[in-house]
Amino acid sequence: MEITSNYWDFADSLILRKNGGVFAVFEVPSEVLVTIDKRGRERFKQTAFSAFSKISAYGDFELHTIPIPIDLYERFELLRQDIDQDSGTAPLANLIMDSLQEKIEDEIEFLFEYKHYISVPLKSNNISPDLVSTLKDSVSFYKKETLKLLGLGELPPLNWFEDWQLKKNTLKRSLHQLRVREVEKTELEFLARLQFLRGQFYDKETEVDAIKNCIDNIDDTNIYFENHKVLRLENKDDDNFVACFPIVDYPQNVSSIHLQEELQFLDFPVESIYKVAFSADKGVSSPKKKARNKRKNLENVVAEIEEDGDIQRLEVLEAHEMLVDYQEKVESKEKMVDFSISWL
C-alpha cells in the first residue's frame, strides 16, 4: 500500500505542507518529577496549563512523545575522549568501557530516549478564517497532486519561511514557560522520516541525505495492513510491525491518572500522539452548551433512579460533582479543550 507524506519543505522549526499549511514545531525538554512529589506534579500541570492557554488563538495543537533510538557506540566514543590514551591506566579504562558497553547491549533489548515536541498550526486550511485563501490553497494542492501524477513537480516558494519567522517567534515567546527549543531543519527532516522507519535498522546520515536529494524519500517505505490495528512497514531488506491503539474510552475523572508516566516505565518504545483542540466560545460545541446538555442528562438519570426507588449510585454523585466543577471553570472563563490520544 502506498501512503504518501504531505510534507513539501522544511526550515528551522517550520514545516510547509503540500496543502499550503504551515506548522511550527518546538522541542519541549523533559521535566524530572519525583513520583511521590504531588505538589511538584501539580505545579508542573499548572505551568503547562498556563502555557497552553496562551496559544488558544491558534485553534489546536499536537503533542508528540517520540522514542529516539540511542547510538550506544557514539555515546561511548564521547566518553573515551576523557581517557588519556598515553597513560598507563588507559588499557584498563578501555577494557572497562568495552565490558560495560557489551553488558548494556546484552541486557537491554531496546535502547532509546523519549523526546517531546509540540506542533502548532500557523496556517491551516482547517482553521483559516479567510475563505478566499482557503480556496486558493486547495486549488494549489490539487494542482500539485495532478502534476505529480504526470511525473512533474512544483517547487515550494523561494524563501517561504521568511514570511513566518515573526509568527514563529511570537509563538515561541508564548510557550516560554515550557522552555521550548527550536528544532533544526535537518532534525525535522529526520523526525518526519522516522515515522516511516519505526523500529527498523537505519543510518541517520544516509536517511537525511536521501531527503535532501528528494523530499519524496520521506515516505520511501511499503506499508501493509495486517489487520485493523497492525501495520507492517517494509523498508529495503528490513520490516517491522506497528500496532496502533486509539484511546476511545476514559474514566469520568482522568485528572490524576498519569498515563504518560506509566508508558515511560515500559521497557519497549511507545510513541504517543495527543491531538488537542480548544473549545469554541459559542455554538453547539461551546463549554456552556456542553454543560447545559450534561446537566439535563444528569437530571434525567437522577429522576429515573428516584422513580425506581434505588439509592443513587456513586458514579452519579461523582458526575454531579464534576459537573459543578466544570461549570465553575466555564464561568471563570478557563480554556477548555477536546482531545484524542493514540499510542503506537
Could you characterize the architecture of this molecule?
By secondary structure, the chain is of the alpha+beta class. Helices cover 40% and strands 22% of the residues. The protein is built from 10 helices and 12 strands. It has helices at 38-53, 72-80, 90-107, 131-149, 165-174, 185-194, 204-213, 259-263, 287-308, 314-331; strands spanning 7-11, 14-17, 22-28, 60-69, 112-123, 181-182, 222-227, 230-235, 238-243, 245-246, 272-278, 337-343. Strands 1, 2, 3, 4, 5, 6, 10, 11 and 12 form a 9-stranded antiparallel sheet that branches. The protein has a 3-stranded antiparallel sheet with strand order 7-8-9, with no helix packed on it. The longest helix is centred in the last third of the chain and has 22 residues, at 287-308. It starts with 6 loop residues before the first strand and ends with a strand. The relative contact order is 0.14. The model has no long low-confidence stretch (mean pLDDT 79).
Layout of strands and helices, then pairs:
Blueprint: E1 7-11, E2 14-17, E3 22-28, H1 38-53, E4 60-69, H2 72-80, H3 90-107, E5 112-123, H4 131-149, H5 165-174, E6 181-182, H6 185-194, H7 204-213, E7 222-227, E8 230-235, E9 238-243, E10 245-246, H8 259-263, E11 272-278, H9 287-308, H10 314-331, E12 337-343
Antiparallel strand pairs: 1-2, 2-3, 3-5, 3-6, 4-5, 4-11, 7-8, 8-9, 10-12, 11-12
